[in-house]
Amino acid sequence: MSVLDRLATSLNRRDEVPNQELAQHIVHADDANAVKELIVNLGHKDKNIQSDCIKVLYEIGERRPELVSKYYKEFGKLLESKNNRLVWGAMIALDMIATKEPKGVYSLLAGILATADEGSVITKDHAVGILIKLASLKQYADDCEPLLLEQLARSPNNQFPMYAERSFSVINQKNKKRFQKVMNERIDGLEKESQKRRVIKVLKAVQKLG
Questions:
Q1: 193: Cβ contacts below 8 Å, ≥ 6 apart
Q2: How open is the CA angle 56-61-65, to the nearest 5 degrees?
Q3: What is the pLDDT of residues 77-93, one digit of tens each?
Q4: Dihedral sign computed on CA atoms, order 128, 130, 132, 138
Q5: At what angle do helices 176-187 and 138-154 cross, to 10 degrees?
């Protein structure tokens, strides 16, 4: 049975279980040829096949990013797709491989941020994830920290506490005042007390850093 035959669409399934199982099988078998077949079929005439392929690819990326990391350019091109499922699926894939292929993902950063500005919540979430991963690396920290701070400053209230929590991993003695400033500026504008409590918890943790 070929890779395409095992996709949810080919099996007349509306759930994602077949795609998840296929990803697990490919990871277990270390099947680079299957990955290549999925990449090729991102351009399939059937949009459902396209969607299944990107789903399997980012599921592989979550489990074994090195199996898909060399295809960062292909994922980058999908950010311009008219198929929104491919757009946010590609953003997830790039998030999954950002630590394995930081140079390649960094080269796509302008497109990633432009897509995030116009994209869905999922797209924005994973763009922030990419920035956090890149900001954790010394060679990209100086460029990515200001971009991350900008995303924090402009993020929707519903997303802000999560972004603040996730950003904690890249906050240090050198940059903590900048992160504190953004959090303090945003906290009064949060509608829910639960949101404020989450941000206050992060601020307290930041204050303890050195």
A1: none
A2: 150
A3: 999 999 999 999 999 99
A4: negative
A5: 10
Q: How far is CA 149 from CA 70, 90, 119, 133, in A?
A: 29, 23, 18, 14
Tokens read off for 32: 């680079």
Domains of the chain: 1-67 (1.25.10)
Mean pLDDT in the chain? Answer: 96
User: Can you read off the two tokens belonging to residue 9?
Assistant: 């669409």
In a 13 Å sphere around the CA of 146, the CA atoms on its Cβ side amount to 2
Structure tokens at 83: 């198929």
pTM equals 0.95
Cβ pair 160, 190 in contact under 8 A: yes
Euclidean distance between CA atoms 169 and 32, whole angstroms: 32
Contact 149, 119 (CB under 8 A): no
Provide the residue count of the chain: 210
CB neighbour class for 189 (10 Å; exposed up to 12, middle 13-18, buried from 19): exposed
168: DSSP letter: G
Query: What gap in Å lies between CA 169 and CA 166, rounded to an integer?
Result: 6
Among 78, 147, 80, 88, CA closest to 121: 88
The predicted structure's pLDDT at residue 80: 94
Q: For residue 37, give the H/E element and its range.
A: helix 32-40
